[in-house]
């Protein structure tokens, strides 16, 4: 039987044990929420007071979870003020913090503010899991830029198309300084029915060599051209023929200020005098060589639609001695003369393609000898007036044509004035691509030393057609007509026609051939003749 005091003490001790056990179980549950609530406040207090504190496990856990969910590293913790230097990190004690991306973010901001930076398409936050641009600074997350494609789109392949040369057989030319020079050499044989184009001429086979040079400047301003040629003929069989001729012409254009343009030209040629010359030398075996020197200088100015120009020119003709049948020589010095002229032209452009003009000319012909062997003074004064039109229709039609009157009054009163209609033309026409037509017409006053004769007027015209049949095949045709009117009475009519073709084997070598016929009829005795010739040879160019 128990005692009451003992039972009371046992109950009190049991109650204490139960209370202590309950407190042990309840206390952690009450303290844990308080600690959780106090932890952020303590961290904020440390940042506000500028104290450096430890990183909680919660921050580390949230950083890891953020990185795993979004693929973006969480911003690392940065204290407001630097703390004391930490000991060097050992190999086994590396920091668990994510690496800093401040430098990369600064570079990204700089690139975005660069005006030269190509515009990037807007980012899709769902696809890239990036942060919108307006939330980048507030969230502290780094913006992910869209990566450029490693295999960018390229244009379509056009195939094997290659630009073709417009004329694969045209000469390329040689470069000499600022000039492009195109040399052409032609070598062949000519058969002719009348070797010396005389009334009683006989046939012959003649070797003919022709060299031509064309040079064109390549200047940004001004322009220059040079043309030269040389021809040598030597008979292989038949009638004896041995002659040489050649010439060179150069033009220079200066583009001056205030719409002024200066044009200069100079030329020289040498050739045997033609059998059709108006001067008849009795008993001649070899006709004399004729030297011709031409030079001109002109200045033009445009005043709106008004065109003004002035041109001065000089032409010198000098003759060598003639060889007679008996082997003696006959001097031709009395035929040497110089012609100086001045032309003034005024035109008005009624349209960009048409410019009518009027022109006046004054000149003087000076003979080296005051009197010829017959005692005549043959120096003369020239006057001429012309009206014409200049045409420039792009690549179709260009050139000019004029008509007027020309006269030369000789100093000797016993000699009549040489005068007549003045016709001139130089027109280029291209009716279609690959076809070129050119017409040249001229009026020339010819002097003479025949006793009592004042001279003659020669009208000459040539129509020339060139057609490119194929890239390596060209055809040429020409027709000419001339009329010589003697002041003392009489006339000469000369007609000629020519046709030829050139077949280019390559850009350098070609085969060429042509046929020509010429006939002259005259009211004067001993001047009629006709001649047929055929040429076959090769042509080389560079």
UniProtKB/TrEMBL annotation:
<keyword id="KW-0732">Signal</keyword>
<feature type="region of interest" description="Disordered">
    <location>
        <begin position="65"/>
        <end position="141"/>
    </location>
</feature>
<dbReference type="InterPro" id="IPR036709">
    <property type="entry name" value="Autotransporte_beta_dom_sf"/>
</dbReference>
<protein>
    <recommendedName>
        <fullName>Outer membrane beta-barrel protein</fullName>
    </recommendedName>
</protein>
<dbReference type="InterPro" id="IPR018759">
    <property type="entry name" value="BBP2_2"/>
</dbReference>
<feature type="signal peptide">
    <location>
        <begin position="1"/>
        <end position="45"/>
    </location>
</feature>
<dbReference type="Pfam" id="PF10082">
    <property type="entry name" value="BBP2_2"/>
</dbReference>
